[in-house]
UniProtKB/TrEMBL annotation:
UniProt source species: Shewanella jiangmenensis
Signal peptide: 1-19
Keyword line: Signal
InterPro entries in the record: Solute-binding_3/MltF_N
Protein name listed in UniProt: ABC transporter substrate-binding protein
TM region(s), chain numbering: none
Keyword Methyltransferase belongs to the record: no
Solute-binding protein family 3/N-terminal domain segment(s): 28-249
Length: 270
């Protein structure tokens, strides 16, 4: 009788189902991100940020174990490029990465904007007009710097980090400032300046950010995370996190899956 009871409990419980069906077994994911405030960063040695809180909420939704590791981007990307069952976030969608990862998202849309001081009466509507009116501040190695260089903008003031570039704008050392909108509210807080001190002028580009699952991660795992992200999108939890961290309304479309592209040019997920 005791044996029969244990046997029935094992059949009826989720753990028993997993044990009896090897096809349902799944390996734990490894969670990797980079220090990129306010998306992800360490605060008193604890990972935090918009993307970290989002992934933690998804882990709870799915009952996934594992800690989030904050590593330099090059190291995290190298691990995710070589090992299976790795979730790398927040990852920009690029064609060069389509053969390496299954993408779920977008989780956020980073808009590269041009800003001016609110007291400045100039209102250029494009990059060429702005460049004729004064210098543009940007920080070294940023996507904004690459865009401005590709556009042939000569009068750039390149800073070592974003906060320095913002302070140059506020002090009038540059007339315009190019920066990803997701980080502006946090930078203004660090500078001790109200958000109303800046005026956005126009958008240069958009970068969609995704959850990237490494090659070899089971299709079922990717689909489960997509479904969980869709639930957070539909019930407003994703939008609430967006407002908390960026003081912005989300502009990203409903979540979808972009399966890895094989060398033959076919989607690996179909």
């Amino acid at each position: 009788m005791r044996f029969c009871c244990f046997f029935l409990i094992g059949l009826l419980s989720p753990l028993g189902a997993l044990a009896d069906d090897p096809g349902l077994e799944r390996e734990s994911l490894r969670f990797l991100t980079e220090p990129l405030p306010p998306l992800s960063f360490l605060e008193l040695e604890t990972p935090t940020g918009f993307a970290v809180e989002l992934v933690e909420a998804l882990k709870v939704e799915l009952g996934e174990p594992g800690d989030i590791e904050v590593l330099p981007w090059a190291r995290a990307y190298n691990i995710a490029s070589r090992e299976s069952n790795v979730l790398l976030f927040s990852t920009a969608l690029r064609e060069s990465r389509r053969s390496l990862f299954d993408f779920v998202g977008p989780i956020a849309t980073a808009r590269i904007m041009v800003y001016k001081r609110n007291v400045d009466s100039a209102s250029p509507q494009d990059l060429q007009a702005a460049a004729k009116l004064g210098s543009l501040g940007v920080y070294r190695g940023s996507p904004a710097e690459r865009l401005l260089q590709q556009a042939g903008v000569a009068n750039l003031e390149v800073s070592s980090y974003p906060l320095q570039s913002l302070r140059q704008l506020l002090a009038g050392h540059v007339r315009f400032w190019c920066q990803v909108d997701l980080s502006v509210a946090r930078l203004l807080m660090q500078a001790g300046t109200a958000e109303s001190s800046l005026t956005p002028l126009f958008e240069l580009d958009r970068i969609e950010l995704y959850l990237a699952f490494s090659g070899g991660t089971p299709r079922a795992t990717v689909e489960r995370w997509h479904q969980a992200l869709a639930r957070l999108y539909e019930d407003g939890r994703l939008a609430a996190l967006y407002r908390k961290w960026f003081l912005l309304e989300p502009v990203a479309a409903a979540p979808h899956i972009l399966w890895r592209i094989t060398p033959e040019g076919k989607s690996d997920g179909i």
